């Protein structure tokens, strides 16, 4: 079963890559063919089938290959590319392939370490995320932020959504309130 059935349709996935999508070196058709859709936050993408979330794309990346590296058991991927293809992109010890440092040597791409490779996500489950968001919204500092958020042009719902998205895709909280506010604003600018 697809985790995100509303993007089962190739056209839907393709349409999600609007002109706002920041990666121009990889064609939208290639993303969509490889199962990915844009969630309309920066370059965050998700496979409609397995739900793996990847970001940090390089213009030289191949979505199929990144898909294989980060979600080797995706049935959609297996059906389209076959087991052999997927195997060829697993690091030697297959147990650890879900690490974020999976750029293998057969790729020539160099990138700064803080930006290392497409980051796989989905380490927190939905309950953990909800709990974390709930806790975070009750911090005294957050309450102060909430009191001012209408001035900033954002709502509590946007802040919650920004945090959820961040935790879901990056498995990581925001480093600062500024970052959080910015992410919420980005969300509010989405159509
Ligand atoms: Zn997948």
Q: Number of helix segments?
A: 8
Determine and state the CATH class of the largest domain: Mainly Alpha
| CATH superfamily heading of the largest domain | Inhibitor Of Apoptosis Protein (2mihbC-IAP-1), Chain A
Helix content: 40-55%
Bound molecules: zinc ion
Task: Please state how the strands of the largest beta sheet are arranged side by side.
Answer: 1-2-3
User: What are the segments in which pLDDT stays under 50 over at least 5 consecutive residues?
Assistant: 93-118
Radius of gyration: 17 Å
Largest sheet: 3 strands, antiparallel
Helix-strand string: HHEEEHHHHHH
User: How far do the termini sit from each other?
Assistant: 28 Å
User: What is the CATH architecture descriptor of the largest domain?
Assistant: Orthogonal Bundle
Structurally, the number of domains stands at: 2
Count all strands and give the number. 3
Summing up helix and strand content along with how strands pair, one would put the structural category as mainly alpha
Task: Give the DSSP E fraction (strand runs of 2 or more residues).
Answer: under 5%
Please name the CATH topology of the largest domain. Answer: Inhibitor Of Apoptosis Protein (2mihbC-IAP-1), Chain A
Mean pLDDT: 80
**What sort of overall outline do the alpha carbons produce when their principal axes are compared?**
elongated
């Amino acid at each position: 079963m697809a985790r995100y059935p509303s993007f089962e349709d190739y056209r839907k996935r393709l349409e999600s890559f609007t002109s706002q999508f920041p990666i121009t070196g990889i064609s939208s058709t290639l993303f969509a063919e490889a199962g990915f859709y844009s969630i309309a936050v920066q370059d965050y993408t998700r496979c409609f089938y397995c739900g793996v979330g990847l970001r940090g794309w390089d213009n030289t990346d191949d979505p199929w290959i990144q898909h294989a590296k980060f979600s080797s058991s995706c049935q959609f991927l297996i059906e389209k590319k076959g087991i052999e293809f997927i195997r060829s992109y697993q690091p030697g010890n297959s147990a650890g392939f879900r690490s974020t440092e999976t750029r293998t040597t057969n790729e020539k791409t160099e990138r700064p370490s803080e930006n290392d490779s497409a980051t796989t996500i989905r380490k927190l489950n939905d309950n953990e995320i909800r709990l974390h968001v709930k806790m975070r919204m009750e911090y005294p500092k957050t309450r102060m932020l909430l009191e001012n958020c209408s001035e900033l042009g954002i709502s509590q719902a946007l802040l919650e959504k920004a945090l959820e998205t961040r935790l879901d895709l990056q498995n990581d909280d925001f480093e600062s309130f500024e970052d959080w506010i910015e992410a919420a604003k980005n969300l509010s600018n989405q159509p």
